[in-house]
Amino acid sequence: MIQIYNPGNTNFSKNGDMTLMPSKAIVHPILNGAWSAEISHPIDPEGRWKFITDEAVVRMPSFNGDQLFRIKQKEKTDTQITATMEPIFMDAKDDCFLVDVRTTMKNGQEALDIMTAPNSKYSGKSDIPWTSVAYYEYKNLIEAINGDDDNAFISRWGGEILFDNHTIIINKRIGGDYGVELRYGKNIKADGLTEEIDTRNVVTRIYPKGYDGVTMSDHGYVDSPLINNYPTVKSATITFDNVRMKDTTKQEENLKQLGELQVKLVANGVKERALRRKYQLNKVKETDYEKQLDEILTERNDIQKEINDLKAKGEEEEQEARDEAIKNDWTICENQQEFDTALLQECNKQFDLGLDEPTITIDADMILLQNTDLYKDYAVLEEVSLGDTIHCRHCKLDINTDARVIEMEYDCIKKKVTSVVLGDFEKQTNYFDNVQSAIDKIDTINGAIRSDGSIVAEKIKGFINGAMTSLKAQYNIAKKQDVMAVLFENLDESSEMYGALAIGTQGLMISKRRTADGKDWDWTTAITAAGMIADTIVAGLLADQTGRNYWNLNTGELVAGNARFKNFSGNDSVEIADATMKITNNKKYAGRIGSNNLSGNKNVVGLVFELEDGDYMLWGIRSGETYTPIMLYTKGAYTGAQSNALNLKCDLNLGGYKLSNAKFDGGYSGTIPFVKKITATSDGILKKVDNAGIVVKNGIITSIQD
């Protein structure tokens, strides 16, 4: 039953305001893409169609149970009304706003709990166990989950999305593997079936490299088990930075020092034996013997202590190396043989993940297929759901691959799948991130990059000006065309010139592949007056016209004469210039962290923290949302703090060192006189002989004056 709720009715636990009798009702989900739904209803005499209004909510069966959809667009003709809808969870674009939300080291479920907290109507479920960090400021919930920036949930945690009314499910993967199998191998576009096999990114031979470019013995390679299924060998170089040869530098240095100490220990033993022999022969006095023996034994103890300390240091360094390897998931190899084995295993992992398999796309219209001979082979697709795995057999290549349901159409009236798109979804391989070959060695621009990686500004400026001059010359000889745009295309997949270019007054588009349905080009690169869009931008150097500010992507060197970082409000936050970092908060300049030199001696440099326009300088400890001040300097007097003073909120441990130049407020300062010595005269009169004084400063006795 399909029901509709008026825009003001939010009680979806009860029946709607009207039951609809649509002629068409479909749900169109896309894996981690936009979901849509559509309903067509006749202009019926009962007036049911009148309930199909803007922002009304429709409840209808879907592949994952009864689902709510909100009407976003409608179109009426003389005979019917058609409405386009989206899942009700998309309401979160309007009424779940994240002003300042931080998810620090949270797993998937914990992150979604925090993100949906601004509106209790929404909730999230996730089985993602790994933790990540994200910060959302002035974003709606939908942007935060699957937006374009790197902070989005899908970017930080990954996962696949399933909408379930006011709940969003983001698991490691959705769908299942229920053993559904298909055999295919013909590229046809008829009777509702399109099959496409793409082998352009297949790799069957890997030349592996480890960390620092270390290769296998004799520059070896690893072949895929499927290498003979293709007419040519498809080679690529892949770097595995997690495979590393053990760093023996520290170990060798420790062994060298240990050897030297062992020699000293042996020499000490020789000295002891020689001394004892002399004593036995009465060639040395007993007192001298005991003294010399004590010196030898003391030296031995010192040497043995150095040996023990060095061994402990070596064990500590070994443990630190092991801990670092475990933390970063490195494979540390003791020798070349282990290194070759590790690279072999990494290559086989890539093949297991499908690097040696073609990319497949199958678009099946079950309604059109059911009247063909093919239908019996594809009827199983009526039972699949979004994300399900389909096992496919390539007849021509004799290769088994797995495809997934990445897009589908569900008939809510017949309650069955009517169309599916099968393909690869985020094939888990790091090939494209790590592949390196000769083409990675990008030539520098006319010698603009020196051997040390620095920039020759004149070269950069000359290159840019020269390029602009050439383009202007082109512009001057160009002839005006009557057309607004031109399309160049080559549809022959076997041709080296396969691809398309569309160019016109609004910009240009470039593509080397077709869309999944084969109806259009998948435009991967576009250049307009507003900017450039591309899957990948390959560059060696990004620089301004002066060459003073640049990013050398070959070396990783980033140079900016004056770098400014602004917050989301557009206000300066941090400015870095001349070895100084200036910090601004809420439009008020606080101070800087940087380096300067000792007055009168430029060779004496140091690190400084400078409070300028700011009101205080604070060292503290943060634990969750609790902040505890530890040491504070403030210009003004605040509760519990004295101005122009260093206020400590903890004990001061001097570690046995003296406290010098200390001043204690209050108490008497001056000299207190007293009689140091008296005598008596012959007539019995007492007489002062010697005067003295007690010197007091701030109530503390500092000295005695004679």
The rough form would be described as extended
Amino- and carboxy-terminal Cα gap:
111 Å
**Class computed from helices, strands and strand pairing:** alpha+beta
Count the beta strands. Answer: 44
Helix content: 10-25%
Strand content: 35-45%
Total count of helical runs of at least 4 residues: 11
Residue stretches low in confidence (pLDDT < 50, at least 5 long) are 427-447, 450-454
Evaluate the radius of gyration.
Answer: 40 Å
Determine the mean pLDDT: 81
Number of domains: 7
Biggest pleated sheet? 14 strands, mixed
Quaternary state of this entry equals: single chain
SSE blueprint and pairings:
Elements: E1 2-5, E2 18-20, E3 24-28, E4 36-42, E5 57-60, E6 67-76, E7 80-87, H1 92-95, E8 97-106, H2 108-116, E9 123-125, E10 132-140, H3 141-146, H4 153-156, E11 160-164, E12 167-171, E13 177-184, E14 189-190, E15 193-198, E16 205-209, E17 222-223, E18 235-239, E19 243-245, H5 249-280, H6 286-328, E20 331-333, H7 336-352, E21 359-365, H8 366-369, H9 375-378, E22 389-394, E23 399-411, E24 416-423, H10 431-434, E25 435-436, H11 457-477, E26 485-490, E27 499-504, E28 507-511, E29 525-528, E30 531-534, E31 541-543, E32 550-552, E33 557-559, E34 563-566, E35 572-577, E36 580-585, E37 588-598, E38 601-611, E39 616-623, E40 626-634, E41 646-648, E42 670-680, E43 686-697, E44 700-705
Helix pairs in contact: 5-6
